[in-house]
Task: inverse folding
């Protein structure tokens, strides 16, 4: 008489859906490999040691920003202030070197990340305590932090000559052909990814993004978790600011200006749902790599500068379209709507 | 006139005939830009203090013509006597400048000009020919007699002065002595450090035979220098352009860059302030042949199209760069 | 609840009161704010932002967003410049072609959002880059500025007897149109419903996808109208025209009390916010407040606009709770 | 008898002007199942949310084992051993079913990492205990309401709670699943837990509970042993008056065909469904949960597309995929999930009630609040919607009153074909009778009514004809005279075919 028995879901079917989930990140990876492959065939120099190093270095800062952004987006929030936080922290880094030339590098790195964390805490506190939409608050702090940066810098510029050579070498040195900065980024991404996957508080971030009301009812400290996510995003933006100095050497108060939309684009291209609850920082980091690689490959492929911007836009659309097509297939597999 | 850009010798007569209390406002393309910080706050401000005027600097935080218009409107309402402006667009701010002039302000453009009819004077840091000539000469010297492919890393695609220089460089390259140099590419770093850096990187990835880069913008040349000095192309691909000594010192020292050029931005702002004051005091009207004294820089003559020329660009090399600090 | 402060039209009042305060305090303490010229400049600045903010209000109320508007504006300027340079000299033809272009650009956004079901934030970040890129493709590094001065002058010429440009009347008419659609038509009811719960709206017979599609078309068209105005106002068509304007528009819409999650907000608040932001900025500029401080003020205002009502709401709730029942 | 395990005393709670609870008391004893009954809006869910720590009471005390307790949030209540199944499922659609169950309490291994394998194993165990056939790894997105409810139940069980609170857990479940749930609840109870059970189905109340508390208008009315009560007495206390026949279906003459389905098929969901509903007729669509009934009517109404077949309304074929067209053709659909599909929660009662009629209420294309208010007031009075102000968001209404707003919304369109999906889910007895009377009188006025219902008594009492679905196919078409519990169940479980 058990009529429900027919509704058992075959485990084979589930395994397929698991695979498709994996494909989300895999898809970006494939796109990345394809892009690099095609470009390399057109111009083999694209795979020269120097060029590969440039590619990796180029993605590093965006990948770190995207990791922080992904953490926030997973909780159904967004942090538009990352570009400004990067600018502030980069300027702090430069100023520290300028005013205290003897300062050990780790102290400076920590100071940059700490400043970022403070900015993130401001965002997080406003959002969590006053329960207001993150997009509005961080659009506001985008202006505020940048304004503070301008006010502080007052048109000053910090040049490579002001920064200790040892620190600048961080930006160029490689370990087994991989730039040190990239190693840094990979460690950050892996740690963040593992934390989100394997720790209760990490999973709670997904829960919050999936349904904030349900999260509150299940006893999750929503405010505290969201606050923490913003602090993390801020700290990573701060870290990115420090790395920015190591990489570019020259900087003024405009560092990171306009980065926010690139970061959000990287996260979205990386398969993190903009309405929270799903996606991974690995995907976001890959999305950042893909975007940077597009930026580097287009000139190599001979695209005129005027077409490059348009192509980036078209590729962003293509990437999110593809991701959508994949997730629709997953949904179909599950026999559910939407 | 002194040959070096930071001329301090030939002392002018000071504020002779200049009205005191003139309100002089500097409106750069963008505040927070170190180049304009030098020209306005280290040059213009000094001049205004010398002739006992009231100095101010104002402007948008991003280099867009529409934002500049809003500031021009404000300045004209504030009863400013002299507006010294570096135009983000040669046409877009014309309407606002006209209204400001109707309201009684004298308009001096510096660094980047508008259409001649929109302003009273243009303070030209160097002629386009002069800039183009020196850049091509520098890159040719750096690359050597065999020549090869070169590329330009410019600022924004719409920058008036950049495009004028690029045009002149092409004419210069047509000369027989540069027949071995071939301009293969022009890319735009948008005067953004990061973007310029990536464009430099893209150039080298794309052009295996590239021998030299000219970047006629301070942001671009610094970014390209930074990229080259940290890459395997250091010393193999030559770089020159318009840069400031402080930004470029490290790259000249480490051999990435042999020589580059620039005028003294502080002198540019200084001259613009004096020229504006002379206009506002009725000493000159801006017609060709008018003469006025610009403090320590001495006497200048208004040339064709109401233009005043600061001088020739100055070339910085490893043996003279340490004498400068800006 | 906290939403109430923003919901019941009270936010409109807050914005309008703030505007009046800024005007009164500005006029009495800052030289020039009371002058007709000041208002001419403010109006000129308000026009393009308001034109785009009108349809954007509707879009955000349905829970979507269009970040590509400034790029559509730039693309319009570029294409218009290019057409002019190629010898298309009929003004009506140019305007019609440009509006059509904007409509197509909006339709592409709408297609991605409604047919493919992609989030509009992501789509329009993509088309933000795409349209701006196409603007560069169309115009490259050229700046087209040789429009007849009769065109460029007429765009900014004043209403006879006043200093205010006549074009504001067009904007006012459009504002009434969009305001009525939002607040006093069945379409408007549908917009609020789908902004709050698209599924329930669909069950109630609201054509969610179709409405959103046309809203994106409207936004594109209005953005290109703003582009036409921009071209004439600045007498210069460049590929980078209006760069970054999208954030100014979104900031005004949000400050005007529209919820970023959709379903809440009104037209009066948005128009008040557009005027408030421009007035405040110009007044502070006149008072020699530097650009950097203005940036901070704009940001703080935006934050205050959402934090303020919520804090008031929470305080009220706490007071109520403390009073013995 | 020992003291109560959990006790509430003098609890009050108001939302703005609405006093949801006034001076309420409740005592739950270990090893006892306790029912809480009352009309819609009586304050039952509010009480539950106070027990769960989701609402802070304005006044009153809460004691557990004689110790006074103050909950700062749901986490505190959980920590105190109180497990709650809310009236509306609170799942995370993006997370796996297993994670949904163990969120915040996932089993750990070294370095405080989550032990996913163990979590999966325990989920499977719980599902076996409940007889649920779901893959622990599948995401919660796409689960039917019934499955969602089952996951909620599994979640509550996983606590090994001392107090289990269930707010209408059975509203979406069919007989088999209800039986399983009760078996589990009984074993918990017998192991010393206290169970608080809320339901509008009295058979369930009496089958499970030893003690019954009745609430009315936010106030405590009575608490008695179940054995000392009868359904009639409970109802009288709840409603404050006598409630007559629950299923007053009057026979009406059946007229012309209004709605016809011809071989409607949607691959993998339903197949080859054909039937006709006539004017003046109430046709029930019965079947087990997941048989595909809702899917069929969604397709009819244009919410979902279908692959082949035809929908014919009054002789004219209805286009696919357009609810607007369906409404224009005279169809109305009261959907099964009122929170997601039936109502726009943040909009006011009046805006919700008039949403489908907004075009016809407009004059010259313009629509002003007055017209909507008038219309909404009429219908709110007719259906006795209990709301403090019609301009308040519909989210502030109790579940049952929300359901009435959905009904008002569709009845106001004066439909020619009314489709109702679980029309009385979560509705109290008084209102249920009201709804049934309403459906019946609509049918009498010539409306064709198609009713999806999982409540067999409702199906049998109301329907002129019973269609039974089994696994996406029409399994039987039983006239009123032949329809009884056995014939319907046999068809629903696939043991006879039409
Ligand atoms: N968040 C809220 N804001 C305002 N009023 C509310 C809120 N929640 C509940 N109410 C009101 O409190 C009263 C009690 O509602 P509650 O949900 O507790 O009823 P219930 O007994 O569970 O009814 P049902 O049987 O329909 O579920 C109702 O009048 C309702 O409108
Ligand atoms: N909202 C939904 N999203 C995705 N899938 C659903 C949804 N609702 C039901 N399903 C799935 O569709 C199939 C048919 O379910 P449907 O709800 O149509 O059955 P039903 O007979 O109407 O049952 P119920 O009494 O629960 O409404 C089931 O396998 C179910 O899991
Ligand atoms: Mg309830
Ligand atoms: Mg159903």
Result:
């Amino acid at each position: 008489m058990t009529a429900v028995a027919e509704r058992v879901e075959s485990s084979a079917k589930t395994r397929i859906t698991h695979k498709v989930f994996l494909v989300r990140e895999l898809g970006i990876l494939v796109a990345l490999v394809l892009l690099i492959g095609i470009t390399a065939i057109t111009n083999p120099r694209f795979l020269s040691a120097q060029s590969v190093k440039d590619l990796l270095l180029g993605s590093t800062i965006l990948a770190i920003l995207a990791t922080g952004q992904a953490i926030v987006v997973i909780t159904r929030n967004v942090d538009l202030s990352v570009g400004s936080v990067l600018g502030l922290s980069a300027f702090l880094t430069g100023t520290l070197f300028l005013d205290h030339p003897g300062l050990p590098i780790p102290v400076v790195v920590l100071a940059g990340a700490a400043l970022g964390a403070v900015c993130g805490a401001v965002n997080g506190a406003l959002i969590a305590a006053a329960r207001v939409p993150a997009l509005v608050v961080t659009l506001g702090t985008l202006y505020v932090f940048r304004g503070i940066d301008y006010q502080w810098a007052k048109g000053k510029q910090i040049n490579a000559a002001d920064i200790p050579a040892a620190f600048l070498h961080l930006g160029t040195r490689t370990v087994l052909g991989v730039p040190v900065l990239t190693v840094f980024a990979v460690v950050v991404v892996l740690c963040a990814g593992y934390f989100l996957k394997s720790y209760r508080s990490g999973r709670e971030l997904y829960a919050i993004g999936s349904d904030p009301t349900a999260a509150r009812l299940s006893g999750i400290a929503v405010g505290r978790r969201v606050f923490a996510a913003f602090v993390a995003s801020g700290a990573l933006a701060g870290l990115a600011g420090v790395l920015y100095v190591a990489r570019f050497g020259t900087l003024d108060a405009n560092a990171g200006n306009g980065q926010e939309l690139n970061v959000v684009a990287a996260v979205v291209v990386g398969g993190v749902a903009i309405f929270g609850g799903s996606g991974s920082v690995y995907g976001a980091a890959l999305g950042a790599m893909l975007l940077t690689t597009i930026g580097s490959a287009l000139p190599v492929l001979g695209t005129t500068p005027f077409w490059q911007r348009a192509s980036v836009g078209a590729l962003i659309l293509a990437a999110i379209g593809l991701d959508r097509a994949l997730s629709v297939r997953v949904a179909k597999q599950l026999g559910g709507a939407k | 006139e002194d040959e070096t850009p930071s001329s301090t010798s030939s002392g002018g007569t000071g504020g002779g005939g200049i009205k005191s209390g003139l309100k002089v406002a500097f409106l750069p393309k963008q505040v927070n830009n170190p180049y304009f910080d030098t020209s306005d706050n280290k040059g213009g401000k000094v001049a205004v203090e010398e002739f006992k005027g009231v100095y101010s600097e104002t402007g948008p935080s991003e280099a867009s013509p529409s934002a500049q218009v809003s500031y021009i409107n404000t300045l004209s309402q504030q009863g400013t006597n002299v507006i010294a402006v570096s135009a983000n667009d040669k046409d877009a701010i014309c309407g606002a400048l006209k209204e400001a002039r109707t309201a009684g302000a004298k308009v001096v453009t510096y660094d980047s000009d508008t259409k001649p009819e929109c302003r009273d004077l243009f303070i030209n840091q160097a002629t386009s020919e002069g800039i183009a000539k020196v850049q091509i000469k520098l890159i040719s010297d750096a690359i050597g007699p065999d020549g090869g492919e070169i590329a330009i890393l410019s600022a924004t695609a719409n920058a008036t002065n950049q495009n004028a220089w690029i045009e002149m460089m092409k004419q210069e390259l047509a000369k027989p002595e540069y027949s071995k140099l071939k301009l293969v590419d022009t890319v735009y770093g948008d005067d953004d450090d990061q973007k310029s850096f990536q464009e430099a990187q893209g150039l080298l990835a794309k052009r295996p035979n590239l021998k030299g880069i000219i970047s006629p913008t301070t942001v671009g040349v610094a970014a390209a220098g930074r990229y080259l000095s940290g890459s395997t192309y250091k010393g193999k691909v030559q770089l020159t352009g318009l840069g400031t000594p402080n930004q470029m010192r490290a790259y000249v020292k480490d051999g990435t860059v042999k020589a580059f050029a620039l005028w003294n931005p502080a002198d540019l702002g200084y001259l613009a302030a004096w020229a504006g004051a002379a206009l506002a005091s009725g000493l000159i009207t801006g017609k060709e042949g008018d003469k006025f004294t610009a403090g320590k820089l001495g006497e200048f003559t208004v040339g064709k199209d109401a233009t005043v020329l600061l001088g020739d660009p100055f070339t910085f090399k490893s043996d003279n760069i340490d004498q400068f600090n800006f | 609840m906290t939403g109430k402060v923003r919901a019941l039209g009270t936010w409109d009042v807050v914005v309008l009161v703030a505007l009046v305060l800024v005007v009164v305090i500005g006029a009495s303490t800052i030289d020039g704010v009371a002058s007709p010229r000041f208002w001419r400049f403010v109006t000129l600045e308000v026009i393009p932002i308001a034109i785009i903010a009108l349809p954007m209000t509707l879009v955000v109320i349905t829970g979507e967003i269009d970040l590509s508007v400034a790029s559509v504006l730039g693309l319009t300027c570029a294409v218009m410049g290019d057409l002019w340079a190629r010898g298309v000299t009929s003004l009506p033809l140019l305007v019609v072609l440009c509006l059509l272009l904007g409509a197509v650009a909006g339709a592409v956004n709408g297609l991605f959002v409604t047919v493919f079901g992609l989030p509009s934030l992501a789509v329009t970040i993509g088309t933000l880059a795409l349209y701006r890129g196409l603007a560069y493709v169309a115009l490259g590094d050229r700046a087209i500025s040789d429009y007849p001065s009769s065109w460029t002058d007429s765009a900014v010429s004043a209403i006879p007897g006043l200093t205010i440009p006549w074009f504001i009347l067009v904007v006012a008419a459009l504002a009434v149109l969009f305001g009525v659609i939002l607040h006093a038509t069945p379409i408007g009811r549908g917009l609020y419903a789908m902004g709050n719960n698209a599924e329930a709206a669909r069950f109630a017979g609201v054509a969610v996808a179709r409405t959103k599609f046309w809203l994106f078309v409207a936004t594109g068209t209005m953005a290109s109208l703003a582009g036409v105005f921009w071209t004439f106002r600045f007498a210069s068509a460049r590929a980078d025209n209006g760069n970054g304007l999208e954030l100014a528009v979104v900031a005004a819409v949000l400050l005007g009390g529209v919820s970023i999650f959709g379903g809440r907000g009104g037209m009066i608040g948005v128009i008040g916010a557009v005027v408030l932001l421009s007035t405040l900025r110009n007044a502070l500029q006149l008072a020699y407040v530097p650009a950097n401080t203005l940036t901070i003020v704009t940001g703080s205002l935006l934050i205050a606009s959402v934090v303020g009502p919520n804090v008031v709401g929470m305080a009220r709730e706490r007071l109520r709770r403390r009073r013995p029942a | 008898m020992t003291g109560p395990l959990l006790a509430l005393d003098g609890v009050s709670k108001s939302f703005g002007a609405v006093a949801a609870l006034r001076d309420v008391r409740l005592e739950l004893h270990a090893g006892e199942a306790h029912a809480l009954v009352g009309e819609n809006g009586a304050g039952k869910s509010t009480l539950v949310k106070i027990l769960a720590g989701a609402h802070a009471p304005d006044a009153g005390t809460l004691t557990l084992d004689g110790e006074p307790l103050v909950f700062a949030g749901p986490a505190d209540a959980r920590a105190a051993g109180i497990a709650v199944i809310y009236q509306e499922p609170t799942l995370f659609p993006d997370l796996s079913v297993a994670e949904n169950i163990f969120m915040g309490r996932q089993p750990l291994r070294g370095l405080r990492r989550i032990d996913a394998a163990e979590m999966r194993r325990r989920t499977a165990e719980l599902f076996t205990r409940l007889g649920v056939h779901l893959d622990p790894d599948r995401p919660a997105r796409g689960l039917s309401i019934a499955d969602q409810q089952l996951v909620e139940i599994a979640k509550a069980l996983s606590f090994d709670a001392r107090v289990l609170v269930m707010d209408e857990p059975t509203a979406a479940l069919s007989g088999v699943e209800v039986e399983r749930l009760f078996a589990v609840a009984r074993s918990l109870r017998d192991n010393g837990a206290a169970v608080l059970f809320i339901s509008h189905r009295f058979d369930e109340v009496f089958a499970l509970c030893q003690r019954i508390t009745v609430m009315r208008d936010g106030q405590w009315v009575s608490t008695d042993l179940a054995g000392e009560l009868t359904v009639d007495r409970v109802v009288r206390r709840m409603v404050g008056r006598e409630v007559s026949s629950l299923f007053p279906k009057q026979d009406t003459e059946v007229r012309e065909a209004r709605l016809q389905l011809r071989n409607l098929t949607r691959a993998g969901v339903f197949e080859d469904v054909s039937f006709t509903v006539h004017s003046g007729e109430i046709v029930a669509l019965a079947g087990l949960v997941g048989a595909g009934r809702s899917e069929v009517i969604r397709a009819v109404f244009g919410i979902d597309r279908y692959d082949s077949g035809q929908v014919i309304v009054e002789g004219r074929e209805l286009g696919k995929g357009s609810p607007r067209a369906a409404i224009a053709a005279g169809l109305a659909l009261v959907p099964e999930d009122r929170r997601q599909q039936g109502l726009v929660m943040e909009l006011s009662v009046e805006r919700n009630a008039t949403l489908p009629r907004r075009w016809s209420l407009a004059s010259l294309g313009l629509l002003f609040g007055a017209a909507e208010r008038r219309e909404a007031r009429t219908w709110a009075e007719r259906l006795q919607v209990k709301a403090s102000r019609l301009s308040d968001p519909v989210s502030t209404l109790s579940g049952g009153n929300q359901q009435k707003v959905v009904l008002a919304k569709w009845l106001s369109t004066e439909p020619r074909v009314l489709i109702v999906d679980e029309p009385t889910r979560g509705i109290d007895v008084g209102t249920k009778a009201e709804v049934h009377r309403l459906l019946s009188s609509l049918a009498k006025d010539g409306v064709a009514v198609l009713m999806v219902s999982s409540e067999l008594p409702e199906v049998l009492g109301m329907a002129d004809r019973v269609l039974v679905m089994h696994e996406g196919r029409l399994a039987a078409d039983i006239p009123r005279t032949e329809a009884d519990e056995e014939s319907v169940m046999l068809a629903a479980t696939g043991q006879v075919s039409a």
